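Good morning N.,

You mentioned wanting to compare the apo and holo forms, so I went ahead and generated the holo version with magnesium ion. This is what I fed in:
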Amino acid sequence: MMEFELEVNKVYLPYLNMITPRIQIFFGGSSSGKSIFLAQRTLTDIILGTHNYLVVRKVARTIRASVFNEIVKLINEHDLNKLFNINKSDLVITCRNGCQILFVGLDDVEKLKSITPAKGVITDIWIEESTETFEDDIKQLQKRLRGLSKQPKRLIMSFNPIMKSHWIYTEYFKNWVDGSKEYHDDEISILKTTYKDNKFLTDEDIKNLESETDKYYYDVYTLGNWGVLGNLIFKNWEVKDLTKETVIVGDKEVSIMNTFDNYKNGLDFGFSEDPAGLIRTHYDKKNKTIYVVDELYEREMTNDVLQREVKKIIGDEYVVCDSAEPKSIAELRRLGTRALGAKKGKDSIDFGIDWLQRQKIVIHVKCQNFKNEIQQFKWKEDKDGNVMKVSVDKNNHLMDALRYCYEDEMTYRQMTAVKGF
Ligand SMILES: Nc1ncnc2c1ncn2[C@@H]1O[C@H](COP(=O)(O)OP(=O)(O)OP(=O)(O)O)[C@@H](O)[C@H]1O
Ligand SMILES: [Mg+2]
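and this is what came out, ligand included:
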C-alpha cells in the first residue's frame, strides 16, 4: 500500500475507521470540514481495498463541481495520481487495487439501474447535501442496492441542517438532544460540527461566519443548529418534472416543454466566492406562470467558459445580465451571446420581489440550485428575531438572475399601481 499523510481535523479522527453503525450522519454549520473529511475517509477506505463507494447527490450535474472535484483535488494534493485512474466523463475513480468510487445523481435513473463496481459490491453510499433528497429517493436507492447484494452497507449523509421540518430530522433525529455534539446507538451515529472544529479556516473565513446578522443563517450556518424557517418570501412555487407534464393542443397531448416559446433568461456574474448563475425560464403571461426550465450555477468560470456554457443552454436567445459588470457583458457579446444589461435602479429589488410574489413559479426538477435558493429566500431578521422588510442578501444568485429576466414585465406603472401610489 502506498503511504500518504492525511491531515484530518481532530473531531473527525474517531470516525476515520468507524465501520458501524450502518447509518452515519455528519451535519452542522458551514465550512466545518464535513465534505473534506468524508472525501479523505473515502480515499482511505478505497486504498484499503475493501470498499466500493457510491457517491450520490440529488441532481447528477451538481456532482462534478462539488464532491467529485473535492476527491480529485485530494488525490492531486497528495500525489496519489499514480494510484488512481480518474474518468472525468463517466465520473468514476478507480484505484489500482480495483476498488472504485462511482458518482451518480438520483435523477439519473438509467445509470442507477446499471451501477455496479468493477469488482465486489458497493459497500458505502455517501449522500452529499442529503437535505436535497426526498425520503422516497433514499428508500428506492437502498432497495435497489439491497437487491444487488446481501452485504450490509454504510449509509453516510452530510448536510447543513436547513430546516427542522425536514424528513431527515423526523427520521433520524428522534433521540437527538439539541445542544449535544454527537449521538450513537446500534443503528445510527450522528456528529455535529461547526467552523470551530475546522482548524484550516482563515481569519477571514471565521470573520465572515461570525459576522452573520440574520438569525436563521447564524443558527444554521454558523452554529450548525437545525433551522426554523420562517419569514419566507416566496411560497408560490412548486417543483415538477416538466418532462412528464403534458397539455392538450388541438386534439393532441404534447409535452408541456414543447409548447414553451416565450423564453426569458437572466445571468448573475460571479467567480470565486459567488458562483455565476444563469436561469432559463418560459413565461406563460396569460396564467402569470413562470416555468424555470434550466440553470447554470458554477464557480471559477472565466468569461469565455461562461459564454460557452451559457450558449449551450440558451443558444441565440437574449440574456439579461447584472449590469454591475459591463466589461463581462461586452465580452459575452463579443463571443456571440446576446447579452443585455439589467436596468435595476432604485427599489428594483423590492419591486422585483413584489412582482414575483404575484406569479406562480413552477421549477423543473433538475433546477436544484434554484430550488435551494427559493426555499430559503427570506426576510431578514435581527438577532432577536424581529423581521425587517429587506431580503437576506445571501444564496440569491439565481434569484437575482430571475429578477433580471422579468425586468421588462415589471413596468413602473404596474408596480406603482400595486404599491397603491
Ligand atoms: N483536513 C483538511 N485539510 C485542509 N483543509 C481543510 C480540511 N478540512 C477542511 N479544510 C478547508 O476548510 C474548507 C471547508 O471545509 P468543507 O468544505 O469540508 O466544509 P463543509 O463542512 O463541507 O462545509 P459546507 O457545510 O459549507 O459544505 C475547505 O474548503 C478547506 O479549505
Ligand atoms: Mg460540504
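The two ends are 74 Å apart (CA to CA).

Happy to go through it together on a call whenever suits you.

Best,
F.
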